[in-house]
């Protein structure tokens, strides 16, 4: 490989590693957002060990990707063969791990949907109206998506506060504004004047699933982009590693 081609490969590899570093930051940021955001649906699923594990995996993969991008930049600029070889090996492992994770998610999506349904049902049954983080997230969903319950309003029939109360209570965040009269609250429980609650009839399942599908598409798009960058980085790194020659120490002056 000529010196011109070697230099072009070196700077292209540096550019790809910079993009790889930034993509790792995006993945880590997404994992942190899922773990820490108090106004998203993911808060409702925070009791799920699988969801928390997925968030930590995203954070770990993102951090590791940033580290590999940094090492790749060093190896490319300073033409260090051992770093380029290590970079290629780690990229290969990351790529295989991403393919395995994607396959697991795809083939176990029914199990994930079932677990999500169970978690949401438990949230509705245990909803005490104390304005906790989980309750705020669920109120936010019902209020903004204009829905009530997971499948419908009857999902709230198992809530212990509603069952044990002598009043006709319903979740305030479910309240249909067009049917409301007077002042109304955004959270907790409100008192109904009749057994027919003034709430939305539609459940949140369809809207939430649409939200999840939309965000999963974004995640998969990011992962696909990262995979392509990884593949290009692997090709460039192995080509550069093969064509970096060791120093010819016979040319060193002897005294």
TrEMBL record:
Principal cellular location given in the protein's record: membrane
Protein's membrane topology: Multi-pass membrane protein
One GO CC term, this protein: plasma membrane
SUPFAM superfamilies noted in UniProt: Tetraspanin
Compartments in which it is found: Membrane
Keywords: Membrane, Transmembrane, Transmembrane helix
Any matching Pfam family: Tetraspanin
Residues spanning the membrane: 12-36, 56-77, 84-107, 216-241
Similarity comment: Belongs to the tetraspanin (TM4SF) family.
Protein name (record): Tetraspanin
Taxonomic source organism: Sander lucioperca (Pike-perch)
Recorded name of the encoding gene: LOC116067296
